[in-house]
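Subject: complex prediction, re-run

Hi both,

The earlier run crashed halfway through, so I resubmitted it with identical inputs.
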Amino acid sequence: DAKTTQPPSMDCAEGRAANLPCNHSTISGNEYVYWYRQIHSQGPQYIIHGLKNNETNEMASLIITEDRKSSTLILPHATLRDTAVYYCIGDHNTDKLIFGTGTRLQVFP
Amino acid sequence: NAGVMQNPRHLVRRRGQEARLRCSPMKGHSHVYWYRQLPEEGLKFMVYLQKENIIDESGMPKERFSAEFPKEGPSILRIQQVVRGDSAAYFCASSPSGKFNNSPLHFGNGTRLTVT
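This time it finished cleanly. Structure:
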């Protein structure tokens, strides 16, 4: 099972890119990496996921290193509404997603 | 396209009463997951169900908690004889298949249970 490690907190200025790192050094070859976020009092929101290639959607970009031991979630132009706890999760090749403690991102004006 | 619907949003129960939390998955999703989030803590997996079957209940407390997902209707998480320690946010998620490859979970906005 891929255990993920994230910094507990980060700050980002509004309008700047937020780069959130995640280490998953034990990830196996067919395990996806998922990113979710939880804005205060709301349910977790799916952001993006990837296996080997970098991915981009309307919310964010996901950069996965070639050895797949780490990844970075990029919010290209952070807004105040992006303040949330961000979770990086390896899918464990099992029947459930296990959430860690995540990174608390604070976007400031 | 409606997302995962949970009700009620807020539920207040006295100690010893029963709590029933409902979850309607997204259309076309036959896999439902329940998670619990205690105040100031992370999300903890409780149970995974498919229609009429419990697939994985490794995160469910051994007593007072049960879950079902009948052939018709929503999934129900039932807590009997609630205690103050059951106060938490309970989130439901659904997916079209049980394996996550290219199939992320979609979460509802939760039910906040307060036990007085």
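The radius of gyration of chain A is 13 Å.

- K.
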